[in-house]
Design a protein that fits this description.
The complex is a heterodimer of chains A (107) and B (117).
Chain A (H helix, E strand, L loop, with lengths): L3 E4 L2 E4 L5 E7 L7 E6 L6 E5 L3 E2 L7 E6 L2 E6 L9 E6 L11 E5 L1
Parallel strand pairs in A: 2-10
Antiparallel strand pairs in A: 1-3, 3-8, 4-5, 4-9, 5-6, 7-8, 9-10
Chain B lengths: L2 E5 L2 E3 L5 E8 L7 E7 L5 E7 L6 E3 L7 E6 L4 E6 L8 E8 L4 E4 L3 E5 L2
Parallel strand pairs in B: 2-11
Antiparallel strand pairs in B: 1-3, 3-8, 4-5, 4-9, 5-6, 7-8, 9-10, 9-11
Classes of the chains: A mainly beta (107), B mainly beta (117).
C-alpha cells in the first residue's frame, strides 16, 4: 500500500507569509496527487489536482508542484481565510491514501 | 448544482450493522466513480472505498475489507455503504464524494457514525 507523509504537522504563520507544505509518497505516484483544505466541521475542499492543476474557483495564491514521490503545496501570501488543515491525497481507481494533515495556525 | 446528501448515521453497538446512503443530484450520477471517506473525531481523513460507474469494480481500505460493502443504484442516483461487524474504531464522520475523475471534487456534508455500548 502507498503511504503518504506530510510535513510539518502544524505550521504557525502570519497573514502575508509564504507557506509551503510537503507531501512524500512511499513509492512513485507520477503526478496523481491532490491537495484539499478543510475547516472545522466542514467537508474538505479540493484545491489542486494532478499535482499542479488549480481547481476552478481556487485563488491563484495556491500552487502545487512535484512528481514521483515528493510534492509541495505553496500559499504565496497567506490570507485570513487560509487558516485551516491541509491534506494531500494520492489517487487512482483502487485507492486514495491521504496524508495525516497539516494544520496552519495563526502565529 | 452538484449535491451529495448523506444519511443513515447514528449510534450502534459494537458488532452491529448500519447502512449509509448518499443521495446525489445535479450531475449524471451513472457517469462517475464514487467514494466513501471517513474522519474519526479529531483525526485526519481516511479513504474507505471506491465504486465504478456500473458497480463492476469496488475497492476497499484493508481495515474494512470483509465488513463493509459499497454499492450504488444508478436508477435512484444513490450510493450506499453497508457496514457490518462495526468496531469502536469505525466511529467517524462518513463522507460520500464524487470522483471526477479519480479526484474527490465534490463532497457531502457527512454523517456521524458512533460505535459504542
Amino acid at each position: 500500500d502507498i503511504q503518504m507523509t506530510q510535513s510539518p504537522s502544524t505550521l504557525s504563520a502570519s497573514v502575508g507569509d509564504r507557506v509551503t507544505i510537503t507531501c512524500r509518497a512511499s513509492q512513485s505516484i507520477s503526478n496523481w496527487l491532490a491537495w484539499y483544505q478543510q475547516k472545522p466541521g466542514k467537508a474538505p475542499k479540493l484545491l489542486i489536482y494532478k499535482a499542479s492543476s488549480l481547481e476552478s474557483g481556487v485563488p491563484s495564491r495556491f500552487s502545487g508542484s512535484g512528481s514521483g514521490t515528493e510534492f509541495t503545496l505553496t500559499i504565496s501570501s497567506l490570507q485570513p481565510d487560509d487558516f485551516a488543515t491541509y491534506y494531500c491525497q494520492q489517487y487512482n481507481s483502487y485507492s486514495g491514501t491521504f496524508g495525516q494533515g497539516t494544520k496552519v495556525e495563526i502565529k | 448544482e452538484v449535491q451529495l446528501v448523506e444519511s443513515g448515521g447514528g449510534l450502534v453497538q459494537p458488532g452491529g450493522s448500519l447502512r449509509l446512503s448518499c443521495a446525489a443530484s445535479g450531475f449524471t450520477f451513472s457517469s462517475y466513480w464514487m467514494s466513501w471517506v471517513r474522519q474519526a473525531p479529531g483525526k485526519g481523513l481516511e479513504w474507505v472505498a471506491n465504486i465504478k460507474q456500473d458497480g463492476s469494480e469496488k475497492y476497499y481500505v484493508d481495515s474494512v475489507k470483509g465488513r463493509f460493502t459499497i454499492s450504488r443504484d444508478n436508477a435512484k442516483n444513490s450510493l450506499y455503504l453497508q457496514m457490518n461487524s462495526l468496531r469502536a474504531e469505525d466511529t467517524a464522520v462518513y463522507y460520500c464524494a464524487r470522483l471526477g475523475p479519480m479526484i474527490a471534487d465534490y463532497w457531502g456534508q457527512g454523517t456521524l457514525v458512533t460505535v459504542s455500548s
